[in-house]
Protein: Iron ABC transporter permease
Organism: Cohnella fermenti
Amino acid sequence: MNASVDKRRRTTGFLLYMLAGCGLLILAAAMSISFGAANIGLPTVWGAIFHYNPAIMDHQLIQTFRFPRTVADIMVGSSLAVCGAIMQGTTRNALADSGLMGISSGAAFSIALCMAFLPDRTYSVTVLLACLGAGAATGLTYFIASLGKRGMTPQRLVLAGISISMMFEAFAQYISIRFRLGQSMAYWTAGGTAGAKWGELAIIAPFYAVGILTALALSPSIAVMSLGENVASGLGSNPRVIRGISTVVVLLLTGLAVIIVGPVGFVGLITPHIVRYLIGVNYRYVIPASAVYGALLMVLADLISRLINKPFETPVGVVFAVIGVPFFLYLVRKQRREFE
């Protein structure tokens, strides 16, 4: 009886936090569309979205720039947060994140190559190559982490990921300098969704939907994996299959996020920790809640990046660096005994 009551209580808490997160996300999205270099009233925002009139300048501004930018923030934030939750669950590593594991840098390096050698590429080719770059970085990270007598451990995986990330970032900078990619590459590397367009988001949307839905379907299996491979095998799960599918989902969502915003870090690191603090460690709940709260975090960070230095914009990657670096150091300090 007590177990049944406890389960019902956790489910109720999860639903309440999801409703609160969705409400806050809608409010943050409305603020994101309204506020910027020029503030626009909410009635005008409502009219631009549901009763678009191309003759009104504010409607054009919202539909051309601010609305797609906010949608891009939601897609990026939810993708990176879900990736972080999946990686932390499958590796049982609180420091796992697509940025720290080198995945984002691998995708960014691929896009730098695209800018240098494939200037006339289609957007679909960019998506494919970004995912391939993310896959190459992941393979290198796991290979390096598995070297040595002790094999792969969560700590070695993080250290290998940071090394691979630095290597690919250096390669991307070399390509930028060698082929004079200039300010566009520098700003894209810093992170930002200012250039998001409806046509590009329409190409990405089906892949995004497949990745998020697959992650949600995997959440019960990842909940079992978070208990350890031996426990998962004992309960009838196949850890290799789960890890393989999870890796594909992470590569897909990370590649899409990097294409839209650049190699922004710490979203996938911070969000799952916040969610686990609120609703517990059951990944059946952590993954869907991470999607909502990751989107909320990204929309708020992008809004802050536009408002702290009006009328100029600060790259959103800088905002996350200010928040994420202290948080990362806190986690490292918290787990210092495991590194010794």
Remarks:
- The chain has one domain: 75-339.
- The mean pLDDT is 86.
- The longest helix spans residues 57-91.
- Residues 277 and 286 are 10 Å apart (CA to CA).
